[in-house]
């Protein structure tokens, strides 16, 4: 799966996933270990992306761990796809898409908007990702 082309872009899709993870941690105040970048496994499951900086397939997820309204710790898996088009990453989160330009610099406003949408998805009772035990 790592051999999927980055369309001459030079950076794999995992780059924007890690940037999205860092931005989500920054804006939400979650601890570093409360947000894990994941990649799709061959069996349809998700595996931690750590140690695979060149991973470039389109299917990703962020696993978030945070307290619910009663103070109990819950985990939520938010799945999304990443495409590369015209020197931009396109993050597809359910019906929403975010174009995040990289050249000449990473579009911080678009990255922050995508991170907020991930958090909204994680907190939504009608979210598309499973609540994990």
Explain the overall architecture.
By secondary structure, this protein is of the alpha+beta class. The protein has two helices and seven strands, in the order αββββββαβ. The protein has helices at 13-28, 108-123, and strands at residues 35-40, 46-48, 59-67, 73-85, 88-93, 96-101, 131-132. Strands 1, 2, 3, 4, 5, 6 and 7 form a seven-stranded antiparallel sheet that branches. A hairpin with a 5-residue loop joins strand 1 (35-40) and strand 2 (46-48). The protein is globular, with a radius of gyration of 14 Å. Mean pLDDT is 85; it is low at 1-7.
Low-confidence spans: 1-7
The major pleated sheet works out as: 7 strands, antiparallel
Shape: globular
Radius of gyration from the alpha-carbon trace, in angstroms: 14 Å
What are the secondary-structure elements, in order, as H or E? HEEEEEEHE
Can you count the beta strands?
Answer: 7
Helix content: 10-25%
Contiguous helical run count: 2
From the N-terminal CA to the C-terminal CA, the straight-line distance is 29 Å
Q: Give the overall pLDDT as a whole number.
A: 85
Kindly estimate the percentage of residues that lie in beta strands according to DSSP.
25-35%
Helix/strand structural class: alpha+beta
């Amino acid at each position: 799966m790592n051999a999927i082309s980055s369309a001459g872009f030079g950076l794999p899709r995992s780059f924007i996933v890690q940037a999205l993870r860092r931005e989500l941690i920054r804006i939400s105040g979650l601890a570093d270990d409360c947000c894990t970048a994941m990649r799709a496994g061959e069996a349809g499951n998700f595996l931690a992306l750590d140690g695979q900086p060149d991973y470039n397939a389109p299917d990703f997820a962020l696993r978030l761990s945070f307290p619910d309204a009663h103070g109990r710790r819950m985990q939520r898996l938010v799945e999304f796809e990443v495409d590369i088009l015209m020197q931009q990453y396109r993050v597809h989160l359910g019906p929403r898409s975010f174009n995040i330009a990289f050249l000449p610099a990473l579009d911080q406003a678009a990255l922050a908007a995508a991170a907020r949408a991930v958090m909204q998805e994680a907190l939504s009772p009608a979210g598309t990702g499973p609540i994990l035990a």
